[in-house]
Amino acid sequence: MLEDLLYEVLPVVGFAMIACTAFVMIVMRKNTKDALIFCLFFAVSDLLSGIGTLIDGFYGVMVTIYGTTVEVTHKVSSTSNIFFQTISPFDCLTRAVNIPIFLITDYLHLLLLSAFAIDRLIQIMFPVSYGKIYPYFLNWKLFILLLFASAGLSVPGLAFPLESRFNTSVRVMSQCRFDEVVGEEYYLKHILTVQWGPIVCIGALSLTIILYCIRQTKHKWSYNWSEETSTTKQLFGTIFIRCFLSGLSVHVPLLLIARTTEGHELIAIKDHIIRVSYWIIVIIFQPLWHVLILNSFQSNVYSLFNRYSANTERKWQSANDPPEDVPAHLDRHGSPNPFGSWYSMTGNITGEAGVPVGNERSVSFYYQD
């Protein structure tokens, strides 16, 4: 019951993730000349996760409603049988394509965290050299390189389904749960990496902030800064919050699962519990803490929503506009007349042509054959 409800919620979460990441990409699309490009890198990674979440949710709903896989009987007592639909792990790779997507995006996120933390450390230690070399490596080539690296790191996660391809005794639930498809042994290593990766980045950032404070104690150590101090603090705050929330979103569900009795339904969907926590806290709430931390994000949001609201005053003059110094429309007898306009090229409601008196305006048309 809880798993069925989960698969109904996942498409909503997936759409929210895609919407939030698309918003971040639109707002930060012009910030590609400095370290703020990491915001775009994370947004693309989160977008891939959102697509995988959509696939996961829709696949789970389809299997729950229209499952057609092989039925295997598991006897849970002497008086009753429960039928579960099972499938081979290899078939899950071809049907539930969210499995390889989750493998890649998990490692891509950790690599981006590490790259951003190393970027901040280099900027603090060697600010002048950093100012000269960062345009050569802070670009989309770095993201593509990290994407291929994450794909390479994901290969061991495919070993279990590939090795058990022709082993008919190895079956998993037809919902293709991530931990069952990649195997329990690999999943334990994988979740430990996802759990402690952000904590390691926080340690690196702690070293960075210590070095930053030391450099600020003397003027001669900080005069050659290659960034504005406010920008440095904002970028540091951005990566620190993401590392902290990433670690928190994984540790808290794991503590909850560790306190759950064996056989509870939460144990079966433990990977989804961890992922939903991460998706909501880190990805969906990402625009919120960007607004609170990044001044450039705030200004870009303001300009995005106020692009057509400024300078709306009309600067051109129409031939149908009445003289600006005439407060009201009067008829030919000098009485107020709300119908028509004496200054309209089409005349007024009585069919008379408008003849302005005083402050006349004319429009000339020239034609050359």
Automatic annotation (TrEMBL):
Which spans are transmembrane here? 6-28, 35-55, 99-122, 142-162, 196-214, 235-258, 278-297
Determine if Transmembrane is one of this entry's keywords. Answer: yes
> Among its keywords, does the record have Membrane?
yes
According to UniProt, the name of this protein is G-protein coupled receptors family 1 profile domain-containing protein
Cross-referenced PANTHER family, in alphabetical order? G-PROTEIN COUPLED RECEPTORS FAMILY 1 PROFILE DOMAIN-CONTAINING PROTEIN (PTHR23360:SF10), G-PROTEIN COUPLED RECEPTORS FAMILY 1 PROFILE DOMAIN-CONTAINING PROTEIN-RELATED (PTHR23360)
Instruction: Give the UniProt keywords, A-Z.
Output: Membrane, Transmembrane, Transmembrane helix
- Coiled-coil regions, chain positions: none
**Organism expressing this protein natively:** Caenorhabditis nigoni
